[in-house]
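Chain X:
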Amino acid sequence: LFGRIRGLWGIGRAVGRRRPMAADDDAAEALVDKLKCGDYGDMVKQAEAAQNAQLCLQADGGVKRSDPHTAFVGAGAQQTQNVEEDSYEAELRRAREARLAQLKSEHTWRQQGHGSLRELQDEAEFVRIIGPHERVVVLLDDGRTPAAEDVKRALDRLAKSHLEAQFCRLPVERAFFLTQMVELDGLPAIFVLREGQVTRHLPPDRLFEYASASSPLFPGHLARLLNRVDAITSAEGGSSDEGEDSENERSSRKVLGTSWRRA
């Protein structure tokens, strides 16, 4: 009996030793079958991926093991999109800041009396009014001609849309010292001041160079003229038609002779 048990035990140990060998044989046979059938594409891919895998820095600052040839696909487009979004946000921020600054300036200008053509009583008020203003446009006229009234209306219209400048009117009979200091070429005339200093004198031949005072094109011409001499920051608020080179407007200057009064 003891001998029979030892025999069975020996057989069991032999079987146990053969089982791992049988598993290895099965795996080897399976590999041979795959190679014979050409079914080894997945194995090649896995081997190449394992060989090419590297530590790649991610956009968020992390590190990930992946193929460097494919790890950054689409990263450039994402970065470009992020740059565009940042640029758009920056542009919106600048636009909001510019608008807030404009509203603040407009509020200050309105408090100073900008937004309409201000009637000055005398030269003392003229001297007092030009001090705190960066830009001042002063109309000097006698109020007796249709041209003077047309210029007055055009300036009042521009004053409403150009808050950056103070628009004033001073009757010539109340401007004794001013008329003595400046040689007038006729009336109406406009004086442009920057920081309290007279920078331009616009006589009638400049005001009505391309359009008579009664022309529908005159407000636009006056706005462009004031913009060119830096009295206002843009030509908005006038006529949309240029018309400065038309022969009809040039011939209309002949009508001005009846509207001017020599100083």
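Chain Y:
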Amino acid sequence: VVVWTDPADPPSAAELAGSKKAALGSNNKGDGVAGGRVVVERHTINGLNQRFLPLSSPRTDGILSIDDDLMPTCDVLRYAFHVWQEHPLQMVGWYPRQSQHGNPGYNHVLTKGSFFHRKYLAAYGAPAVAPAREMVQEFLNCEDLLMSYVVSNLTLGLPALWVDAGMPYEMAGKLFGGHAIHADGSFLANRKTCRAKFTEMFEPGTLTTSSMIRYGHTEWDKYYTPGPNHGPGKSKSVVSTFTSWARLGEYIDERLGNLRDYVFLKR
């Protein structure tokens, strides 16, 4: 799914020539049109919140969120997906960051290259999160940070997983040209404002720790080394001490099932 939020410059068929089957969606709600390998969601609003609208397709539980200037190799992609399959309630990504200024280490990953469960798209769009989404629209910034706050809040602070073994290639320019948002002089200042406001808005303890679990080259080597104890589903859970994964999953679903009444933010 390509999320296209530039109404002044809609995609053309020529730009999708690399796919033999493509579908151009014109639904302003971002529903897109199913039926092809590539589905382009065209939006009438130029913003970043549209990136995390609930998707009608694909219907997979796992969502890969990736910027248009990243090109992961198949091996890099497979390994990150393997990590997410073992820990589907957590965000898994290549780019770690720290949301609290001055704190050591990292506590979240950027959604410019990450896997997460599709259920978190609904959480991002919850009515209670509207004030934070308004900031994202105002600054054209911080949607990745907000998603991390939402997931941290919803999962009671489960740490993100940083895949530090193989990185996607970053192209020198954007895929379709144009001005990079991070090149704006106010980009970093706006992110600092977002961090402060989100920390103030959300319930205490949301994304305030410095916890981050790192999957480095050791795990990478194990994953790609033949043997009975290696490969998908064989590695030991790094958070096996958690009381009950099944119960946590039920708890998250309970909260997601009542998003209109659920309060993410401080009362």
